[in-house]
Amino acid sequence: MIRLTALLFAVLLGIGQIMADQRKPNIVVILTDDLGYGDVSFLNAASKIKTPHMDALAGEGVYLTDAHSPSAICSPTRYSMLTGRYAWRNPILKKGVLMPWEEPAIGADEVTISAILKKSGYDTACIGKWHLGFHWPWAPGFSPKAARKGGNSIAKNRMFDWSKSITGGPLAVGFDYYFGDDVPNFPPYAFIENGRLTCDPVDIRANNLKPISFRGHIHGDGPGEKDWQLEKVMPTITERAVKYINEAGAKEKPFFLWFATTSPHTPVVPTKEFQGKSDAGYYGDFVVQTDHSVGKIVQALKKNGLFENTLLIVTSDNGPSEIVQGIIQKHGHLPAGELRGMKWDSWEGGHRVPFIASWPEGGVKGGKRVDEPILLTDLYATMGAVAGAKIADLKDSMNVMNTLLGKGAVRTELVYHSGGGHLGLRQNEWVLLQGSGGKKEPAWKRKRFEIQSPDAPVQLFNLSEDVTQKVNVASKHPEIVQRLSARLKVIKQSGR
Questions:
Q1: End-to-end alpha-carbon separation of the chain, Å?
Q2: Tens of pLDDT along 419-451?
Q3: Phi and psi (nearest 5°) for 31?
Q4: 462 and 390, same structural domain?
Q5: Which residues contact 454 (CB under 8 A, 6 or more apart)?
Q6: Which end of the chain is more exposed for a tag (fewer CB within 10 A), N or C?
Q7: Is residue 43 part of a domain?
Q8: At 467, which CATH number?
């Protein structure tokens, strides 16, 4: 009788746990690559590109006008979002991004949001771009040093032992499943599924990879799939993300999907279906394809009855590429809109990014516009709270759910991080930038924005009066410069 009672109690406890897990929301993050604030039509009425799927989602959920990536470039932002920690605290990511064949940037002792959610009962998947490093299976006598020349790859297939697993990537930081192309313009030019390439690799010459339009910089030769086609990456990873949602919908566990698109980053490779669909050339068409992928994810969630209880985030890892801006000037499209700066820069255009959130059952709905600031690093604490997880150290992250619910600002201070490693501090309307704001701006851009603030060792802007950052007012407000400089020093030294 005692055993029967104990068994019944265990069964009821198991059912209770399943029901508790079912009440937890699913979490989906769609992290686009180099999508600019001015690219999306829900934020920029003058955009030469229409983004109907993101517009519709913004109309159902909430959209933010003052969301920021924690860095103006790729790898540091991804690190910060997963670890809740400013990337400039990591020696590997103080400047620039990871180059081909580099080791993992996330330390073995760091607690990621994927690991937290997995421990909280979530099934976890990473699909798409990774760009945070792997332990590659080098053959005896070879190493990353032998396969790199500057920022390029000179690797050969014989330098690797592909019978061994690729480790140190998503599976090492709490993801149950990974499928993607690590970085489209880096070798290996192939898909990785969990710890293996999905092909028998051959040597690929970077110069033989033919883009549909603008290729950008392909970082050297290396192993890859025979007859690799750059344009097949986005359709394939989108299909895999949809497949994952379809399969997850049949399970009893909540799930966390990190879907990192490879678009509209170079190489600019829209498929035929999307060519000519914008008024901003092939780049605009690639943004349209990105928007279509967002629509496919939303459709899959709704089809499986998951949309209402899914916290869905759509955003970008940084501002739009300066290279892209140069090739689309003739179309009159401004990827960063009226904001100054681009990817790499600590001016607003480098890190103020599109942001949509939806979670109807959680109250994140109604098409509300939210003007209070958040940092993408805040998703670490926010997703943890939504999942009911207890996080011992929130590091540089804050739970901004109240902001997403339209209940006002949670974050009033954030640190800017340029690709060159320069930092800045935002406090309410004031922005202090240390060092240059970014790369030297071309004459046409200075003329277009009537910029009156030349690069200076210290720049100060009042965003409530000058969101386009035309005028550096540091000389007029030395007391504010001193106060913000002192505060930034404290933040750097505090470790959080």
A1: 55
A2: 999 999 999 999 999 987 776 666 656 666 666
A3: -105, 105
A4: no
A5: 472
A6: N
A7: yes
A8: 3.30.1120.10
The reply to whether 273 and 402 lie within a common domain is yes
**pLDDT greater than 50 at residue 179:** yes
Confidence band of 452 (pLDDT split at 50, 70, 90): low
3-state secondary structure the chain: CHHHHHHHHHHHHHHHHHHHHHHCCEEEEEEEECCCCCCCCCCCCCCCCCCHHHHHHHHHCEEECCEECCCCCHHHHHHHHHHCCCHHHCHHHCCCCCCCCCCCCCCCCCCCHHHHHHHCCCEEEEEECCCCCCECCECCCCCHHHHEECCEEECCHHHECCCCCCECCHHHHCCCEEEECCCCCCCCECCEECCEECCCCEEECHHHCCCCCCCCCCCEEEEECCCCCHHHHHHHHHHHHHHHHHHHCCCCCCEEEEEEEEEECCCCCCCHHHCCCCCCHHHHHHHHHHHHHHHHHHHHHHHCCCHHHEEEEEEECCCCCHHHHHHCHHHCCCCCCCCCCCCCCCCHHHCEECEEEEEHHHCECCCEEECCCEEHHHHHHHHHHHCCCCCCCCCCCCCCHHHHCCCCCCCCEEEEECCCCCEEEEECCEEEEECCCCCCCCHHHHHHHCCCCCCCCEEEEECCCCCCCCCCCHHHCHHHHHHHHHHHHHHHHHCC
Say whether both 311 and 448 belong to one domain. Answer: no
| 378 located within any domain | yes
The number of angstroms, rounded, from the C-alpha of 15 to the middle of its chain's C-alpha atoms is 36
Structural domains of the chain, count: 2
Let me know if residue 331 belongs to a domain.
Answer: yes
What digits encode the pLDDT tens for the residues 184-202? 999 999 999 999 999 999 9
What is the spatial distance between Cα 182 and Cα 92, in angstroms, rounded to a whole number?
A: 18
Q: Are 87 and 182 in a shared domain?
A: yes
The model's pLDDT over 158-177, given as tens digits with 9 standing for 90+, comes to 999 999 999 999 999 999 99
**Domain-embedded: residue 274:** yes
Residue 18, pLDDT > 60, answer: no
Which residue range forms the structural domain that includes residue 317?
Answer: 25-411
Q: Which residues pair with 355 in a beta bridge?
A: 315
What is the model's pTM? Answer: 0.94
pLDDT tens digits for range 327-340? 788 899 999 999 99
